[in-house]
Queue: 2 jobs
Job 1
Amino acid sequence: RSEDILSCSITEPVQDRTCKLSVWNRGGRFKKLKGEYPIKVSIGQQTGPERVGDFDNAPTGAPTMYQHIYGFITDIQFSRPDAQRSTVELTITDRKIQLQEAIAVNLPIYDGWNHIDAIKDLANRGGFQKNADIVVCADTGNSELPNAGFMKDPLYMFELGRSIWDCMEEIRKWSQWWLYCDENGKLRYLDPS
């Protein structure tokens, strides 16, 4: 509830978006909060006279100024400023953490794959849905990952235990494309040109 919010701030870099959210812990409602939880936070205001707040159901044409983040609660800090009040500070990170914590297991050798298909396959193995969670711009250039050739170790054979994000970053370095999670929780793989 908005009346329970003490403060909220969202950093807005292209990637690694984070949010700090402080709320009243009235009646201990957050005392069982442990672990990582998916969350979407929207903050801001409408600049028009109609109403302030309800961002998802704002009147058509009503100007709004807001920021949001779709990600996971990654840190929870409880505090008690005095005997009467209790607060909770939540740290929220974008969905990239989902790919950073997913571990590579039984991955194919990606040599010779279309780099977009390789990124989509890795993202899918990290918990992103291929068509719903991944945005890719059209491929405009050389799209096949290099092949090591006969009698050599594969170039894109990722070892067991490596994070899915690290595997994706290695392919991204070859393509020179941008790879990040946006404020809507979608993975974007875009040609910067």
Job 2
Amino acid sequence: IFSSMLEFEMSIKMWDLKYYIPELSYTTVVDVNAVKAGQTIELQDYCEIRDELRITKGIHLKIKNAVVNLSGPIVVDGGEIEISNSEFHYKKGDMPALIMIHSYASVRIMESQFYCGHKCGGVRQSNGNLKLKFCTFCDINNESAVTFFGNELEVSDCRFTDCYVLRAGAGISAQAGIAHIASCHFEECYAE
């Protein structure tokens, strides 16, 4: 099959190879300096982001079926982001949240987990709309698991575990707009 693909100049991606060779293991290191306007970036499987990854206008980031290790946050500043069935792990660095959305955006995050290592929050959005469904937020400290200052927040069927902050809103802090929260579970979440 591979020789036929090469013969017809068809591209072979790592996740294609994993289909045929399941024991294949690799980690994609995202070069944040190579991200330019007009690109669609797709992250799958094991990924590492070592610095702040800025998604500006004209950039579309799709994260699907990925395990992302972060040493810098993903910052959405005018671009587009789609997230489904993925894991995000804090590794090191100083960041208020793993994913930060600044400019107006409609963001949808489905069936994903955020492991913050007691160092930061999960998602922080300052403008636009945010929809979270079937997500898990664990080991939150210093910042709420979800901090929202936008227009409309919808959180459903999510789980918040071991969240601790020194102000209100250990699991969810909705400071502006309209918030719809349904069928969520909060365990060991504390705010002073």
